[in-house]
Amino acid sequence: MDPVRNPFAPGAGQRPPELAGRERELQAFDVVLERVARGRPERSLMLTGLRGVGKTVLLGELRSMAIRRGWGAGKVEARPDAELRRPLSAALHRAIRDLAVRHRAPDRVDEVLAVLKSFALKANKPDAKLRERWQPGIDVPPAQGRADSGDIEIDLVELFTDVAELATDVGTGVALLIDEIQDLVPDDVSALCAACHELSQSGAPLVVVGAGLPHVPAVLSASKSYSERLFRYTRIDRLSRGDADRAVLAPVEREEAEIAPKALAALFESSGGYPYFVQAYGKAAWDAAPSNPITEEDVAVASPEAEAELAVGFFGSRVERATPSEREYLRAMAELTQGRDESAGTSDVAVFLGRKPSSLSPARDSLLKKGLVYSAERGHIAFTVPHFGNYLLSRADD
User: Which Gene3D superfamilies does the record cross-reference, listed alphabetically (predicted)?
Assistant: First the structure.
């Protein structure tokens, strides 16, 4: 098969050639956009799931839907230990520029940009030297006394209110999309919840769409108890057999090629239906096939190549981030779950390693912070990466 025509795209956040199995989420967001456009109250959204299920891709698709409806839209990727104020300023600047195209009063746009600039400048520490101070690329003087208190909760509520009013002026809305939302620092989580609460009460046309790991609901509720009612949570999971087959068949057929039914079954077995793995195994199978159609034998030949690629780019990079004590903890989890995508009891990990639970807390907490594991439920821990336990067991002798 011609490798130049290979349609599969196993990349981080890269949109697959066929976005299969996400129709329900897309339709739900379309309803949100329509309700907000009609002045109806609507909750912000939170997408949760393991790594590799396509949360970032879906977030990008929702952003595109908002833009096609004439909304302003900005996207943020949260990072551990990094405050939200600076990247949020850049995202909302983009959204305001989208709105400015449709607004008939440039002075009104400048007023909101001035508030945004005052908000953004508070990202600088008071004692920062002049050459170290960040300057947002906003060509208006900062406003005084609005979104510039330095208290992120107060400032974010005021900023969201002003941006939403600008959207109301042009009869549209604003979508703010935040990826890796579990990495926000606690103060920013609290501020975001407070701002969304204010928006929901006023019916303002600004929607926050977050995406993150399965424990995001716990992160938000630990900050504000009302967050359980504030957001609509949607769990993004692996694809069904039918959707996984469509994710492979549709791009193959668009290239006027074919794939045998047994090859499709073998691809599903190898990938487990996880979208990232579907793309990885599909790409390897296409390249391994000497001719059309792609057969079950081609998939068998390609699987080691796909697994080697995943071992380096998907699994290996994460193992490298762990310290020796953290790797010991991860290995114990893999042994206890026998490589399955299941949770392990924290007390069971301690027994397995012959250690006191308290002595393992630093390793567990560090793994949580690095996003390699999450608390599936009280007293249990699970991998954030599908097939990770099986990968660790496969290299047990390394």
Answer: P-loop containing nucleotide triphosphate hydrolases, Winged helix-like DNA-binding domain superfamily/Winged helix DNA-binding domain
